[in-house]
User: Fold this.
Amino acid sequence: MKRPKLLHTVVAAVSLLLVANTIPSATVEAQVKTTRHGPTVTPMTSQEQLKSIYRAAGKEYDISWELLAAVDRYAQLTKTKAKKQAAPYYGLALEEKAWVGVDNPNLRDVNPVTIKLFHGLGMDATGDGLALQWDETDRIFSLARWLDTESGEEGIDRLLWDLFQDPVAMDRVFAFQRIFEAFGLNPKGHCFPVAKRYNYTVKHTFGAGRSYGGRRIHEGVDIFANYGTPVLACSHGYVELIGWNRFGGWRIGIRDADNKYYYYAHLSRYPKGLQRGDLVRPGQVIGYVGSTGYGPPGTSGKFPPHLHFGIYKHSGTGEWSYSPSRQLSQWERLPQKILQPPSSKS
Assistant:
């Protein structure tokens, strides 16, 4: 039977008084100091420093640590400038009311007892008597506990929707999780996108005008090579998009765990079996140079064979291209090992 609203308020008030009388004075003093002045945070220089906390929280609540890391990664990469100022620590920043409890009158509450009373998500995972969202251990353990507690009824998909309110975010968090599981938290290595043992010429034409389909700028660099020259993945990532585009012909888009999108266009064909969602690594063959595009499916030969290569960055609210010339120059100097797709190996 539900309590009347007035009775619920009275019970909560009495409980708060009882709780206040049971908290050690040192804890209360620390709580007041923290509440008045807000977090004193030393920003994390690398997510790698949080790896042991992800592992411990994942083990405690039977949640994939890679999923916890993926939530944090996407949240950090899509933080607005204002959000970074308000929450200067790495990763997900919950709304204050979610952390302390929707009905909690103190939005800066750091007392784990009163936060629990108001059904807030915040917890004290370090045993210091404080539930601090800017404490990495408290925050990550609170996230893990919430995912474990709620996923049985709603599923992880719905919980990610509650966090980000964006279907794109859901897809990318799960994709980041798969990348972390396969390659680790910070996979190293890049590769020039065309096999260097073949003849090629790079034309740095980013920003040049284009007229097909209306006036626009060239959002990439063209690498001219003969038909059939292998095109290679330049980073660890997953195939986000594959198929025909009237501008790019047969094209493929690969996104890495830093939310960079690598676009390869005008291909003649793909390796057998390559499909959307597949994981790739640097040097893996993902297609072959062609001259497709500028028309309906199958259009080819309207320009010399080449690879159009572009890089895009996504902030959570928008996506934009930038010149890949500097990276291409760096990758061109690296040793290159060509990897055949798993399905094409004999």
Remarks:
- Residues 44 and 90 are 6 Å apart (CA to CA).
- The longest helix spans residues 136-164.
- The longest strand covers residues 260-269.
